[in-house]
Write a structure and sequence with these properties.
five-stranded parallel β-sheet, Rossmann fold, 254 residues, 2 domains, alpha/beta
């Protein structure tokens, strides 16, 4: 496991909604403990406000729409040879069917990749993704689901070494160079993925799936945990985009 990758994950926790809100609230309780009541009131009020804001449907919808509306759904008319399905989360609980061992985002990515594969004769699907906290790579898990959906082994390329989107892109570049291909990932993740692939001189065709945006139902909404989760996904992507732009600018400087 790369040290930089682990460090990035650690720092990210504290700047994303859950870690940030928990940190603010902990400061509030600390100030309360040391009897600094004014600071405690500010920190606890701010933490509670953020918790409710990130759990509010119109706000969560606003965050994800700005990401998911950047690329339209795939039109199934392109005729290219390769489809790259980016990795997602999974578990290896053998008491569960393969459809439950893979995260909901992962299942939708694989399903979209298989649908596109069926529409394009002689195409191949590339699966990437490391093992995470399990003993089986995500690439292998996704390939197993694709096999269950009728994709032949000869039509799949499986690599479980890449630990992030950039490494996934580098692997596909080693196979395709600058040839066009279909890129399948979650709609929220697509802007960052396209930016990374383009930065390597590649020509992906976006095929977003796993949308989180929902129909606007007015502003009188009760905050819900599911919207906090959606807000967290969106913030994660915004931070990822900023990080990618920062690193790309550094690498491009003479």
């Amino acid at each position: 496991m790369h040290i930089v990758f682990l460090l990035k994950k650690f720092v990210t926790f504290f700047v994303e909604p859950l870690g940030f809100v928990v940190t603010v609230l902990l400061f509030g309780f600390y100030f309360l403990h040391v009897k600094k009541y004014r600071l405690a009131k500010v920190a606890l009020s701010f933490g509670t406000f953020l918790l409710l804001l990130f759990s509010y449907q119109p706000f969560a919808n606003f965050l994800v729409q700005n990401l998911e509306n950047q690329y339209p759904k795939f039109d199934y008319k392109s005729n290219v040879k390769y489809i790259h399905v980016l990795g997602s989360g999974h578990n290896t609980d053998v008491t569960q069917p393969i459809s439950s061992q893979i995260s909901s985002a992962g299942v939708r990515r694989v399903l979209e990749g298989v649908i596109i594969h069926k529409q394009m004769p002689n195409s191949k699907i590339i699966f990437t993704g490391y093992e995470g906290e399990t003993n089986t790579t995500n690439a292998v898990m996704n390939a197993r689901l694709a096999t269950a959906l009728g994709v032949a082994t000869k039509d799949m390329i499986v690599n479980g070494k890449p630990v992030d989107t950039k490494e996934e892109a580098l692997f596909t570049k080693s196979i395709l160079g600058s040839k066009p291909f279909v890129l399948v990932t979650s709609a929220t993740h697509m802007p960052r993925a396209m930016m990374l692939f383009h930065s390597l001189g590649m020509h992906p065709i976006a095929a977003p799936t796993n949308y989180y945006k929902s129909e606007f139902r007015g502003y009188l909404q009760v905050p819900k945990p599911v919207y906090f989760y959606i807000s967290s996904l969106a913030i994660h992507e915004y931070l990822g985009i900023l990080w990618s732009k920062f690193t790309l600018e550094i690498l491009s400087d003479p």
